[in-house]
Amino acid sequence: MTRKTIPIVRYDCSKCPGYCCSYPRIEVKDRDLARLAKHFGLEKAEAERKFTRWYEPGERILKHRKDEVYGSICRFFDTDVRRCTIYEARPAVCRDYPNGSKCGYYDFLKFERKHQDDPDFIPSA
């Protein structure tokens, strides 16, 4: 039997201002849409209409809203506390991010905060 190695996570999303949530295309697959609909107690068609848009044929993405830090951010991101409001129902692409034990943006953010001597520093877009 082969033992699966679990990578040591070297980032802390709770200390990030939501960089990945500012990606313009956050894909929503059918299973993600079903999860969102269930989370909000809606039919899938209603959840699709309210929360998503079609970027191109075959790619449904989450709608965005204005954000002072990144210009635009996921509609489910709370810009006051800088946190996801649907964490338990978030799409698979969000669950998988950053696909490893390191997040390049988190490394950059830690470096900047240390060198700016400001634990809350957010680099502007």
Please provide a brief summary of the model.
This protein is of the alpha+beta class. Helices cover 30% and strands 17% of the residues.
Explain what you see.
The mean pLDDT is 91. Helices cover 30% and strands 17% of the residues. The strands form 3 sheets. Strands 1-2 form a two-stranded antiparallel ribbon. Strands 3-4 form a two-stranded antiparallel ribbon. It has 125 residues and is an alpha+beta fold. It has a domain at 22-99. 20% of the residues are buried. Strand 5 (77-78) and strand 6 (83-84) form a beta hairpin. It contains 4 helices and 6 strands; from the N terminus they run H-H-E-E-E-E-E-E-H-H.
Labels describing this entry:
single chain; 125 residues; alpha+beta; two-stranded antiparallel ribbon
Structural class: alpha+beta
Q: What is the strand arrangement across the widest sheet? A: 1-2
Q: Which percent range fits the helix content? A: 25-40%
Main beta-sheet annotation = 2 strands, antiparallel
The total count of helices amounts to 4
Number of β-strand runs: 6
Shape: globular
* Binned strand content: 15-25%
Overall pLDDT confidence: 91
Give the termini separation.
48 Å
Radius of gyration: 16 Å
Q: Which residue ranges are poorly predicted, with pLDDT under 50 across at least 5 consecutive positions?
A: none
Order of helices and strands: HHEEEEEEHH
